[in-house]
Design a protein that fits this description.
Helices cover 17% and strands 33% of the residues. The chain is an alpha+beta fold. The strands form 4 sheets. Strands 1, 4, 7, 8, 9 and 10 form a 6-stranded antiparallel β-sheet that branches. Strands 11, 12, 13 and 14 form a 4-stranded antiparallel β-sheet that branches. Strands 2-3 form a two-stranded antiparallel sheet.
């Protein structure tokens, strides 16, 4: 399957693959507010005829820091990543999340599609692209990313746009939240053992020792949302169906044995983990890594 992508950049800096990109050394502190930046972008999308996307996320970043860029134009992206790890080259990255009182240098926005007035879940940051099931998703979830710097749109990246072909069912009854929660409770007890919460590779020689050092685990659900989610239609490559789904997102902690009573929390590296996706039509559990 061919994956489509529309990309626009106002930058004159080459990223090493012949694609222009914004030169972060040109970035200046923003004079517009977050609300003004969002309004500017939404107006621009309207003028471009993009009317089926809604804002999913917007975050601000501070002064860009020195990072890495590949100097060898013959490198593949995989080789470039290895070169970056080795510290070859230099460039300015997007900057860090800002502290209170610091200048804002950039706004990064993510838009997701809406269908028949209903929004979709932003699933890309949950998606495991390493799976290769024949019925699994082979096409990225659609999203539109927009960067705003120096009071203007500097990058626009529309990934995996899809076309709505038809509406199969109108006004389908939705599974009540209470029933979705009941299904979630059953699923979480079955799926999330202490070994799974450890997220430690079983092939590691100290696996048993590591698991034995864990006193207990904790999952905290921080968000439950209802929206549309794309699932693949079996035996129809390239065809998908949008269905209503309840998504349960949260964080987790591990408590270890010993005097220090150390803890490890996902808050510091991945604050949003999808613990269950419940089909809001029939109550079945959806595996987002498989696409159904």
């Amino acid at each position: 399957m061919i994956e489509h992508d529309a990309y626009f950049s106002t930058g004159t800096f080459s990223d090493g693959f012949g694609t222009s990109a914004w030169n972060e050394t040109d970035s200046q502190p923003m004079t517009m507010t977050k609300e003004e930046a969002i309004e500017m972008v939404q107006d621009a999308l309207q003028q471009m005829g993009i009317t089926n996307m809604e804002l999913s996320d917007c975050h601000a970043s501070g002064n860009p820091k020195a990072a890495v860029v590949l100097a060898n134009l013959g490198l593949t992206k995989e080789e470039a990543n290895l070169a970056a790890v080795a510290g070859e080259g230099r460039v300015m990255n997007e900057g860090d999340d800002i502290e209170k009182g610091e200048d804002v240098y950039s706004y990064y926005m993510t838009f997701t599609p809406i269908y028949e007035g209903v929004g979709t879940h932003d699933m890309n940051h949950f998606y495991n692209f390493g799976r290769s099931d024949q019925y699994g998703p082979s096409y990225r979830y659609e999203e539109l990313k927009v960067d705003v710097k120096n009071g203007m749109i500097t990058n626009l990246d529309w990934s995996a746009p899809m076309e709505q072909v038809r509406v199969e069912n109108d006004n389908v009854p939705i599974l009540p939240l209470e029933q979705a929660v009941d299904t979630f409770k059953k699923q979480i007890r079955l799926e999330y053992t202490l070994s799974k919460l450890a997220r430690y590779v079983t092939e590691n020689p100290d696996y048993d020792e590591y698991i034995d050092s864990i006193k207990s685990g904790e999952i905290n659900i921080t968000d439950i949302s209802l929206g549309l989610m794309r699932v693949r239609i079996k035996d129809q490559p390239g065809a998908y169906r949008m269905i209503s789904a309840w998504v349960f997102v949260g964080t987790e902690k591990l408590y270890f044995k010993g005097k220090n009573n150390n803890t490890v929390s996902t808050d510091s590296w991945d604050p949003s983990i999808p613990y269950a996706v419940i089909n809001a039509i029939d109550g079945s559990v959806i595996d987002i890594s498989q696409g159904y």
